[in-house]
Design brief:
The chain is an alpha+beta fold. The protein contains five helices and six strands, in the order αβαββααβαββ. It has a single domain, classed as 60s Ribosomal Protein L30, Chain: A.
Length: 184
């Protein structure tokens, strides 16, 4: 497995001072875009009249979730345990940046035949899926603990997603710290 390091722009964004509270997880494959992850089907739902639109996971979405659960989660058990234990504190939240790495971000035929220099590759939607998969890896949390998420595109010959996660306190985002009644 090739070692992948954080880009300087992510380090500038998250800062070097939070290294003890940060973890980076490598997802060695690209997730599908959210646009291709789910489809809407009309389905009869108990308690509802007629058929209603329901979002269903596509076959590609099922494959991604299976790969994420079987390949990524086991590889990072120690990191996930560290984060899960920290998230037992109700004042702790997560900050995350997904570096979505594509083999090429530039049209090779630009400016002759391609209309734009850069390819239309959606980092936000792909990052969202990785954050969702990560949140589902925890029994103790859901994506409500992500107080800031972002996604960026990076050109790299090895495609995948580098997920950077930092623990922070909710008062950094205007939410007062919770104290148990016996500490007041």
């Amino acid at each position: 497995m090739r070692a992948v390091r954080a880009t300087s722009s992510v380090q500038r964004h998250l800062g070097d001072s939070c290294a003890a509270n940060a973890r980076s997880l490598w997802v060695p494959f690209l997730p599908p875009s959210l646009n291709n992850m789910y489809k809407t089907v009309m389905q009869k739902v108990p308690g509802k009249r007629g058929k209603v639109p329901v979002r269903k996971l596509t076959p590609g979405g099922k494959v991604f979730k299976q790969h994420f659960t079987s390949e990524v989660v086991p590889r990072y058990q120690q990191d996930l345990l560290f984060l899960a234990e920290a998230l037992e504190d109700p004042n702790v939240v997560l900050v995350g940046v997904a570096e979505v790495r594509f083999e090429s971000l530039v049209h090779s035929t630009w400016p002759k035949t391609a209309k734009t220099r850069f390819k239309k590759l959606d980092a936000d939607n792909r990052g969202k899926i990785v954050f969702d998969g990560f949140a589902k890896a925890f029994a103790t949390t859901d994506d409500s603990r992500f107080f800031y998420t972002g996604a960026m595109k990076v050109q790299d010959p090895v495609e995948g997603v580098m997920l950077h996660l930092v623990l922070d306190f909710c008062d950094s985002y205007g939410v007062p710290l919770w104290k148990p009644s016996w500490e007041l």
